[in-house]
Amino acid sequence: MTNYSNKIPLVVIVGGGFGGIELAKRLRNKPVQILMLDRHNYHTFQPLLYQVATAGLEADSIAFPLRKIFKGQQNFTFRMTELKKIIPSQRVLDTTIGPINYDYLVIATGSNTNFFGQQEVEHFAMPMKTIPEALNLRSLLLQNLEEALIESDPVRKSALLHFVIVGGGPTGVELSGALAELRMHILPTDYPELSIQQVHIYLIEGSSKLLGTMSEQASSESERFLKKMGVKVYTDARVEGYDGATIRLSTGETIHTQNVIWSAGIKGAVPEGIPEIGIARGNRIKVDTYNRVEGLENIFAIGDVAAMTTDKYPNGHPCVAPVAIQQGKMLAANLLKLLRGKPLDGFIYFDKGSMATVGRNKAVVDIGRIRFQGIFAWFVWMFVHLMSLVGFRNKVVTFVNWMWSYFSYDRGTRLIIRPFSRTSRTEDTSAK
Length: 432
What we know:
The chain is α/β, with parallel strands linked by helices. The chain folds into two domains: 10-39 and 81-113 and 266-340, FAD/NAD(P)-binding domain; 119-264 and 360-431, FAD/NAD(P)-binding domain (3-Layer(bba) Sandwich). Helix content is 32%, strand content 23%. The strands form eight sheets. The chain has a five-stranded parallel beta sheet with strand order 5-2-1-9-21, with helices on one face. A hairpin with a 3-residue loop joins strand 19 (279-280) and strand 20 (284-286). The chain starts with 9 loop residues before the first strand and ends in a 6-residue tail after the last helix.
């Protein structure tokens, strides 16, 4: 069993996302040891994953080494491993590098794609929650375009050129806009043999409007922007099945496609060992106002995986980075208060607003009662996301890429470096 010290408390943080990083930073030079565990050795800036998937940015522009973030922090240690199980009664974690004990455990594992129990869809659709998934998606899109050039069967060719995005939240809207710009500005030069009239982009949303958590104004404007860019928007339409060739909608319509991107929902990445009674809607861990896991001593959860119910948020806070960052900040202060025997402070979320970009000079922003759209909103979106990136190099590289794309109408990372294997999409699902 790994025991890092018996002299000062060991805080184990599982997950190197926004919440875990903020917590570890706030505990710098404090009387605790910090051990961060993650299956990757880097932090991913997930809001820009769609740009990696659509050839706008390279993966290393939105990733940053976790060890480099905490360079010089004497009370910080990192181990690349996967958590297999929590054993609360022994204060032990079962990991792929062996058992690790803890004094305080913070679960910051984030979320995974939620297919809502549709196994067939999960088998054939493309998720986009991690960098490897975004790279798989980029390869698939480019491979299908290449294949469409030589495909003689008109039905199969149309399926290769139909792109369906499921989920009308910020990710779905931004991805639809990026694909529309790719069709308008890249395909005519890269693939002159293909008519852009053959390329169709569909955005499917199960509710009555896009960007459901934002204002009516933001929703209607984003839909107007997308339709003007040639995206076919379907609202009040749910996916009933997808067999790898045809997607079936609740409206009775079908679309022949080999490109289905799923951004319709997320669920908490809950590690084994949390009692089932402690799991809330959306597979999130029930926590109290201090982010302490209900019924478990010295175990906390923050960010997407945590469900703290309030009058304003009966199903838990939204799964966005600001929530995780603010919870990480508050939990750091509360852990120090626990060590001193002082009363803890309850978490109160300060909503700084929401935003989404649709494309060049097109974005929507809600900040309190202030709503604005268009080019100014687009500049605000760019500034906020640029400043939120971890690492000076990433900020510079991303800014240069954005400026180049803006003035040249080009996306410079149209590379199939690691071809996506279709095997998992064509095998019999019963074999899975």
